[in-house]
Design brief:
By secondary structure, this protein is mainly alpha-helical. The protein has two domains: about 100 residues, Cytochrome Bc1 Complex, Chain D, domain 2; about 80 residues, Cytochrome Bc1 Complex, Chain D, domain 2 (Orthogonal Bundle). The protein contains ten helices and no strands. Helix 4 crosses helix 5, helix 4 crosses helix 6 and helix 7 packs across helix 10. The N and C termini lie far apart (about 40 Å). The structure holds heme C (2 copies). The site of one heme C has 21 residues, from helix 1, helix 3, helix 4 and helix 5.
């Protein structure tokens, strides 16, 4: 039986095969970025907001440099994910120029305004951890820092974030700074839940939490 990833990978190859036809037919109306992004839609969705279950990440509004670095990392095997390994093995992503065009295109899109969040409980714990440990690199607003290569994490889907946080030490291998991986390794599961939930809500425009509120309020 096909796993979900095998199914998605099969769809991806179909998209790649259709691509030359689409690009000839729509060459005038499609930018290079959207043409290169077309085979990614099957998983990351048309606006690059990630999958509805929140397991495939939002890419829209992500830092350019970070996107380019991750695509290269999947390709070289420095970052491991079976779906992305197959995708980046494709010859279009052998070309540095195409990676830059894709990264530019994605970073200019508006991020997902309604990411999947966690339970909303004890967000204060998440806020405290975030402010104390993560904000220095990812920014108080979670939008990342182009210069120190820290990605945008604000408003990323909770299920994806939670998995990245759990596996930070393995998944990104030596890509992530040791300050980050050691802090995450030392955390309890509940703390990781709160932290990922808080980060998934960081991009919302309404005031998130204020110090007078009890835990769990202000979660909407
Ligand atoms: C078969 C499904 C699938 C397709 C097709 C796919 N992706 Fe992905 N992508 C994923 C999954 C799953 C992840 C999460 C990997 C992980 O957990 O480390 C991911 C992660 C990423 C990341 C890392 C994001 C981050 O925040 O670190 C980037 C960048 C990315 N994909 C870009 C692309 C681009 C560009 C394409 C098209 C050329 C594409 N993907 C096509 C499934 C897919
Ligand atoms: C010393 C700077 C630094 C600190 C502190 C830090 N990070 Fe990071 N973080 C980074 C960098 C740089 C990357 C990109 C690593 C890479 O290129 O793969 C990253 C990547 C991530 C990712 C992966 C994003 C994605 O889209 O896959 C997550 C999630 C994350 N950090 C969460 C956190 C959390 C939560 C904390 C606080 C406990 C934290 N970070 C603290 C620098 C930092």
């Amino acid at each position: 039986m096909l796993s979900r990833y095998q199914l998605l990978q099969a769809l991806f190859f179909q998209a790649v095969l259709i691509l030359p036809i689409v690009s000839v037919a729509q060459a005038a109306s499609m930018s290079d970025g959207s043409r290169l992004y077309a085979p990614c839609i099957v998983c990351h969705q048309p606006k690059a907001w990630g999958s509805p279950d929140g397991l495939i990440p939002n890419l829209a509004g992500q830092q350019k440099r970070y996107l380019a670095k991750q695509l290269a990392a999947f390709r070289s095997g420095a970052r491991i994910d079976s779906a992305m390994q197959v995708v980046t093995a494709h010859s279009t992503l052998n070309d540095e120029k195409n990676i830059v065009v894709l990264a530019d295109y994605l970073s200019d899109l508006d991020a997902n305004p309604r990411p999947v969040n966690g339970s909303g409980e004890h967000l204060r714990v998440g806020q405290e951890l975030y402010t104390r440990i993560c904000a220095a690199c990812h920014g108080a607003d979670g939008r990342g820092e182009q210069d120190n290569h820290a990605p945008r994490i604000a408003g990323q889907h909770y299920p994806y974030l939670r998995r990245q946080i759990e596996e930070a030490a393995d998944l990104h291998k030596d890509l992530a700074p040791p300050e980050m991986t050691s802090a995450l390794r030392g955390m309890r599961n509940q703390e990781k839940d709160r932290l990922a939930d808080y980060i998934s809500r960081l991009a919302k425009s309404e005031p998130l939490l204020d110090s007078d509120r009890r835990d769990g309020s202000g979660a909407h």
